[in-house]
Amino acid sequence: MANDNGSQGLDQWTAEVTSHLPSLSKPQAIVLALWSFGMVMTKACGLTTIAAFLARLLGQHENSVRQRLREWY
């Protein structure tokens, strides 16, 4: 992953989401964690902003991250 400190925070946040919302499937919990972590870190709620942030953090293509987020909501 591109940013070890950021991805470590994302891993911790994903664990929190999973533990507090056990009724969600694993894919649902992961995307909710991505979305909420992105909102907190960017202080924004726009899909473009969050997708760009997460793509850079995860070392993935922005369009792939955007599609994953869009499919969730």
Essential attributes:
single chain; 73 residues; mainly alpha; 4 helices
Count of alpha and pi helical runs: 4
Principal-axis shape equals globular
Biggest sheet features: none
Structural class: mainly alpha
Q: Uncertain runs with pLDDT below 50, 5 residues or more?
A: none
- For the termini, the CA-CA separation is 25 Å
How many domain modules?
1
Tell me the series of helices and strands, N- to C-terminal.
HHHH
Strand content: under 5%
Which radius of gyration do the C-alpha atoms yield? 11 Å
If you average the pLDDT, what whole number results?
92
Q: How many extended strands?
A: 0
Helix content: over 70%
Model description:
With 73 residues, this protein is an all-alpha fold. It has one domain (4-72). 78% of the residues lie in helices and 0% in strands. Helix 3 (47-58) crosses helix 4. The longest helix has 17 residues, at 4-20. The N and C termini lie far apart (25 Å). The mean pLDDT is 92.
Provide the fold topology:
Elements: H1 4-20, H2 26-42, H3 47-58, H4 62-72
Helix pairs in contact: 1-2, 2-3, 3-4
Short characterization:
This protein is an all-alpha fold and 73 residues long. 78% of the residues lie in helices and 0% in strands.
